[in-house]
Write a structure and sequence with these properties.
By secondary structure, the chain is α/β, with parallel strands linked by helices. Helix content is 23%, strand content 26%. The strands form 3 sheets. Strands 3, 4, 5, 6, 7 and 14 form a 6-stranded antiparallel sheet that branches. Strands 10-9-8-11-12-13 form a 6-stranded parallel sheet. α4 crosses α5. It starts with 9 loop residues before the first strand and ends with a strand.
Length: 318
Amino acid sequence: MAMNFEIPTKVKAWVYREHGDVANVLRLDPEYEVPEVQEGQVLVKVVAASINPVDNMRVNGVFELPGFALPAVPGYDLAGIVVKVGREVKELNVGDEVYGFTWHAKKHGTLVEYTAVEESFLALKPKKLSFEEAASLPAVIQTAYGGLERAGLSHGKSLLVLGGAGGVGTLAIQLAKEVFGASRVAATSSTGKLDLLKSLGADLAIDYTKVNFEDLPEKFDVVYDAVGQSERAVKAVKPGGSVVSIVEYAKELPPPAFFFPATSDRLTLEKLKPFLENKKVKPVIDPKSPFPFSQAIEAFSYLQTGRATGKVVIHPVP
């Protein structure tokens, strides 16, 4: 069945024209031009988006990808509907419901009604997930999975997750148990989130306001550091184990810690789809979410507090 979507020429987008604090530089542009679709790209009607700490770093100018130019739209995570396909697109069709992490997008982010995305960044949305749930997943599930894989987590090994209630941490706990077959998973959080960690599959929930995890007698095969505490993390790892850090990208890390950058890899999304469809692995969305599109700045401010549980999602996108 051929589907035709009427695509407007001007849409609403959140745009920054200079670097700085999100509240000062991010502005709603009601007349943003819909991007042209290049050969290997599709145009996606964005239904939901989610934001990550890296989005904030981009707006601040702390972190830049090669070839980036202002003005730009922030955001990497999206779920939406394909409304147009470029000439070289092989897998996706108009009408497909998709989600993905548009990591190498130069300027067309996801806080916009329509965005052009490389086909290679997108996977078909699991049918059991809402757009809001799907939009919460791509960056964090790929970062959690890739980091655990690179750190050598495998069946029967133990894992400690630092920052277990955050976007990546909530997925790392679940993937460790359901996909990698870890025998024991411990995770840290503040007092009020310990029950969440247990509900996600953690065998040991550590209250970081009361316990220094590195002083515990128990050591772990893998430590997944989602908060930036590599100096302490290396004291909690067994000899021959490894520590994966996802936040300290500009820093010399003490061995055996290494930095794992976020990646965009649809193969991971496809590999994990069965676990999402059968609800063995679940998205965790902060209770304050979703923020409506008009409140993107409030969503960023909330994310910056560091208190979000799971992901901060923006939905609906008009």
